[in-house]
Each structure stands twice: as structure tokens, then as C-alpha cells.
Amino acid sequence: MAVNYGSKRVVVGAHYGLRDWLAQRVTAVLMALFTLLLLAQVLLTAGPIGYDKWAGIFASQWMKVLTFSVIVAMLYHVWVGVRDIWMDYVKSVSIRLSLQVFSIVWLVGCAGWAVQVLWRL
Questions:
Q1: 19, 87, 90, 121: least CB-packed within 10 angstroms?
Q2: What is the pLDDT along the chain (121 residues), one digit of tens a residue?
Q3: N-to-C CA span, the chain
Q4: Domain 19-119 belongs to what topology?
Q5: Residue 16 CB contacts under 8 Å (≥ 6 apart), including other chains
Q6: Distance CA 28, CA 121 (A)
């Protein structure tokens, strides 16, 4: 008698696989490049780094836009990871949905705070 293990396989989930895997890698590379750029600016700054020099790094508009883009990428990176954790380990649909809604609200709040910090609204 032959045993066929694949015949009763049930695939569940939202099937985000490749798209989420690629999104995590692209956002991670973007964050790593930004970190290297920021590190280079800090290391190339002569003298002690105080508030004035640190604020000067982020004073130009292109740096604010780049920083905000990286923050958005980081928030998406976090969302994909946290959503996968909730989907994999929380079996109760109501608790999982509540945790996902809380995560979204928290991440949107973090994005709003980032805008406030970057542009002093």
C-alpha cells in the first residue's frame, strides 16, 4: 500500500508569501543603506556631536524626506512581521483581529509622531 502524504494537504492563510518576503528584504536593504548614510554623516562630522550638529544632519529637506521614507519602510517592515506573528501563533480570530487593529493603530501613531518630530508640526 503506497502512502501519499501530499494528497490531503490543506493550504490556509492569506497567501502573501513571495510578496511579503520580498517586501521584508527590500525594506531591510533600504534601512541598512540609510543607516550607513547616517553613520557616514556622523563619523565625518568634526568635533563633538551636540544637538546643533545632530539637528543639522536632518535640517535639509532631502534628508527629512529620505528619513520619512525609511520610517514608512520600517513601519511596513514591522507590520508584515507582526501580522505574520499574529497569524501564525494566535488561533482565536477575535483576539488576532484585535491585535492586528491595535498594531495598525500603534504604527499609524508612530508615523504621526515621526512627522511631528521631523517637521515640527
A1: 121
A2: 556 665 555 555 556 688 889 999 999 999 999 999 999 998 988 888 888 888 888 899 999 999 999 999 999 999 999 999 999 999 999 999 999 999 999 999 999 999 999 888 4
A3: 72
A4: 3 helical TM bundles of succinate and fumarate reductases (1.20.1300)
A5: 80
A6: 28
Kindly write down the DSSP assignment for every residue of 57-102, as one continuous string. HTTSHHHHHHHHHHHHHHHHHHHHHHHHHHHHH---HHHHHHHHHH
Question: HSE-up of 88 (CA within 13 Å, CB side)?
Answer: 7
Q: Which candidate, 33, 103, 102, places its Cα nearest to that of 75? A: 103
pTM comes to 0.79
Match 490543506 to its residue by C-alpha cell: 10
